[in-house]
Write a structure and sequence with these properties.
The protein has 14 helices and 12 strands. With 356 residues, the chain is α/β, with parallel strands linked by helices. It has 2 domains: 126 residues, Aspartate Aminotransferase, domain 1; 224 residues, Type I PLP-dependent aspartate aminotransferase-like (Major domain) (Aspartate Aminotransferase, domain 2, 3-Layer(aba) Sandwich). Strands 2-8-7-6-5-3-4 form a 7-stranded mixed β-sheet, sandwiched between helices. A 5-stranded mixed β-sheet has the order 1-11-12-10-9, sandwiched between helices. The mean pLDDT is 95. The chain binds 4'-deoxy-4'-aminopyridoxal-5'-phosphate (PMP).
């Protein structure tokens, strides 16, 4: 077979997608991926290293990671049976769409939002229906309710705090959507430790609510690939059927448990990052740009001088994310909150550019 023939065989739902890709650039100050700037303490890493060396590598991890589920349950306040853990919350989103999406029944998405939802909705053959955020990039409750009324049984994905805008859906808004929507509501709370309210307790009242969370942000574990979802036990038992067996390797499983055991120590950086975010937002507000309120570990700005700012920062070794190609985000940059030193370098670079 010739290569074009092989390419022709690829599912059109995949072939027509634009690849989700991030160009790799080596820079001293990396503020483009909403990572946590603080690495884990050496002592904890060494303890995990010792566990990995001692544990036989020829044996599968547990079929069901009971201990991790129990610890996660204790952390978020639900029984272990209400939780599935996996290889990052990205994997949880894939599993959810495999279990919940139906061919040609579009998934409702609030744009602009995390790109992966659209990619997966297309990939599973459902496609997506867009509800735009309003002109201030806040959730537009009326438009969301209208979309739900039009497609009452469709899966509805909401990201709160929303990436890349930082926007939060408050509890009253969420309750109104849950009261109306007759399909599943997937609430991605990857950034919830930085602001907003945890919707996990609402799972008890709403069997169609599933909340996804991650260790990549507040727990500073982006490299570890651990995320989880929470829903009612019977719903979780169904979704579990489509998850690959052994999706978490023994290393990730042990690391996640260690993270929960040491969560006091690891989460010490969260308050600092929140303070840094608020200080940086106040600083940016003095510059000729619009700063959107953020409940996450990043800030979205809009400015006529987007390209100049991006390039100046890059020349100073600071990489931020150009999100101008997202719907409704013309002239926008997203800046992740770094360590105080990194944020100072960012401020210095911007001060020089704007002569302040
Ligand atoms: N959801 C949102 C909103 C995100 O921004 C990200 C990562 N950028 C993810 C999910 C995926 O996170 P994970 O590392 O847990 O796969």
């Amino acid at each position: 077979m010739k290569l074009p023939e092989a390419l022709d065989l690829i599912n059109p739902a995949v072939k027509t997608q634009k690849a989700y890709h991030l160009e790799r650039r080596e820079v001293p100050v990396k503020l483009n991926q909403n990572e946590n700037p603080f690495d884990w303490p050496q002592s904890i890493k060494e303890e995990i290293g010792k566990f990995c060396v001692d544990r036989p590598w020829n044996r599968y991890p547990p079929f069901i990671p009971d201990e991790l589920r129990a610890q996660l349950g204790e952390y978020i306040g639900l029984p272990a049976e209400c939780i599935i853990a996996g290889n990052g919350s990205n994997e949880m989103l894939l599993v959810l769409l495999l279990a919940l999406a139906k061919k040609d029944e579009p998934v409702i998405l609030c744009q602009p939002t995390f790109t992966v939802y659209h990619l997966l909705a297309e990939g599973v053959g459902a496609g997506s229906e867009t509800v735009f955020l309003d002109s201030a990039l806040q959730f537009d409750l009326d438009a969301m309710l209208a979309a739900s009324a039009q497609r009452p049984r469709a899966p509805f994905i909401i990201c709160s705090p929303n990436n890349p805008t930082g926007t939060e859906l408050d509890e009253t808004q969420l309750r109104k959507i849950l009261a109306a929507h007759k399909g599943f509501l997937i609430l991605d709370q990857a950034y919830v430790e930085f602001g907003g309210f945890s919707a996990v307790p609402l799972v008890n009242e709403h069997p169609n609510l599933i909340v996804t969370r991650t260790f990549s942000k507040a727990f500073a574990g982006a490299g570890l690939r651990i995320g989880y979802m929470a829903g009612q036990a019977e719903v979780i038992a169904q979704i579990n059927k489509i998850k690959l067996p052994y999706n978490i390797n023994f290393f990730s499983e042990y690391v996640a448990r260690t993270a929960l055991t040491h969560r006091g120590e690891l989460s010490a950086g969260i308050d600092l990052l929140i303070r840094e975010r608020d200080t940086l937002a106040a600083f940016l507000a003095e510059l000729p740009c619009t700063v959107f309120p953020s409940s996450a570990n990043f800030i979205l700005i809009r400015t006529d001088r987007k390209q100049e700012i991006f390039e100046t920062l890059l020349a100073d070794g600071i990489l931020v994310r150009d999100v101008a190609s997202y719907p409704k985000l013309e002239n926008c940059l997203r800046i992740s909150i770094g360590s105080p030193e990194e944020n100072n370098l960012l401020k210095q670079s911007l001060r020089r550019l704007f002569g302040r």
